[in-house]
Design brief:
By secondary structure, this protein is mostly helical. The relative contact order is 0.16. 79% of the residues lie in helices and 0% in strands. It has one domain. The chain starts with a helix and ends with a helix. It holds the Pfam family Gate. This is Nucleoside recognition protein.
């Protein structure tokens, strides 16, 4: 009862704030809509549709059999978890959460396995970090690559530790050769397809409908959080850095704010702040994950704790590894790095306001995202088959 009253009061306050400041709320909603349309929609639409098709055609089941040796050895998860990892690490929020929830609802994961997979697969889009953050916000493409590396490592290291501490589940029987593994994968794929039974036309229509419906819900969360950031800005104490509030609530806007802010400590601390914001993901990403995992038994609270841990780990990793990362970046692109240093020294005096027009579009990169997913899945399958062969020797 108390929780209901608190939520009702907060809702009334939010509506009252929007009525009192309609112009700010409208501009913030346009900003959230722009972020959703230019970045999230093109990044997620092919993957959410692909997930539904892969489940119906049995591709998830087939690759699950192929990836089982690697996933069991590395993360103590069933092979299907590899598909969720590939989707989450290429598609971004909340594609990994959708895949983890689908596997949990299909009884491919226990609740504990599902929570560990959810924490590992709920990742920001790599193209957003590389192109939008690195090239567009920071004007340093190589720094975007460094942020990707740090964010992924900050998520992978806790997952590896948790896997070592987790109890080993009963493993599937190993094939006696790689050909046996391939035969079992084909059989699993065929059986799953027969269980589904829908025609291709019906399946494609259902997949697109479900994907667009989920994207509309995601857009609603993002617009709501963008408005919330704008309405809370006047009550934030001046001693708190300007990027903290948007970073806490919405990671896309928070990453822009951290990139534009004048942060003491130079490029290292600015990159660490951006990596921490992206690793946390914001309340918006947690709401998206909560919508995805509803009814699956997976815990959003545990996901939030994992995101906080990953955010702290990303910040510390960036600060700790800044010198070797800088040396690597200067070796890869000395001219770009020199230009970026000069630009930062000239423009570090004041943070520019967050503008929706500064958020670049990912629509032209949809094919590249799909190719990245195919490459990641094929690489995982190759390593898994190799792992199975080595274990048989």
């Amino acid at each position: 009862m108390t929780r209901t009253l608190i939520l009702a009061c907060l809702s009334i306050l939010l509506v009252a704030s929007i009525i009192m400041r309609p112009d700010e709320a409208f501009q913030a909603s346009l900003q959230g809509l722009t972020v959703w349309w230019n970045i999230v929609f093109p990044g997620l639409l092919p993957f959410l549709t692909l997930l539904e098709l892969m489940l119906a055609f049995g591709v998830v089941h087939g690759f699950g059999t192929l990836l089982h040796p690697l996933m069991q050895k590395l993360l103590r998860l069933p092979g299907e978890a590899g598909i969720a990892l590939a989707l989450g690490w290429t598609g971004g929020f909340p594609c990994g959460a959708e895949a983890a929830a689908a596997l949990r609802k299909a009884d491919k994961l226990t609740v504990k396995q599902g929570n560990r997979l959810l924490a590992l697969s709920h990742m920001p889009s790599p193209l957003f970090m590389l192109l939008v953050v690195g090239t567009g916000f920071l004007h340093r493409p190589e720094l975007g690559a460094a942020i990707v590396i740090v964010v992924w490592l900050a998520g992978l290291l806790p997952a590896l530790i948790a896997a070592r501490l987790a109890k080993r589940e009963a493993a599937q029987p190993e094939a006696r050769a790689s050909s046996g593994l391939l035969h079992r994968a084909a059989a699993a794929m065929r059986a799953a397809r027969e269980r589904d039974g829908r025609s291709f036309g019906k399946l494609l229509g259902d997949a697109v409908t479900v994907a667009v419906y989920k994207l509309m819900a995601i857009g609603g969360f993002m617009i709501f959080c963008a408005v919330l950031v704008k309405l809370l800005e006047p009550v934030m104490p001046a001693v708190i850095p300007s990027f903290v509030l948007p970073g806490l609530i919405e990671s896309h806007i928070g990453a822009y704010a951290a990139s534009a802010a004048a942060i003491a400590g130079g490029a290292a601390w600015k990159a660490a702040a951006v990596a921490a914001v992206l690793s946390w993901g914001g309340i918006s990403a947690l709401l998206q994950a909560g919508s995805a995992v509803a009814g699956s038994g997976l815990s959003v609270r545990k996901l939030a704790a994992a995101r906080l841990l990953q955010s702290a780990a990303a910040f510390l990793l960036m600060i700790t590894c800044w010198k070797p990362l800088s040396a690597l970046m200067n070796g890869l692109s000395p001219a770009a790095a020199t230009f970026a240093w000069q630009r930062e020294e000239l423009g570090a005096g004041a943070a520019s306001p967050i503008r929706a027009g500064d958020l670049h579009s990912l629509w032209p990169y949809m094919p590249a995202l799909l190719l990245l997913f195919v490459f990641a899945t094929a690489l995982l399958a190759f390593v898994s088959i190799l792992t199975a062969k080595l274990r048989l020797r």
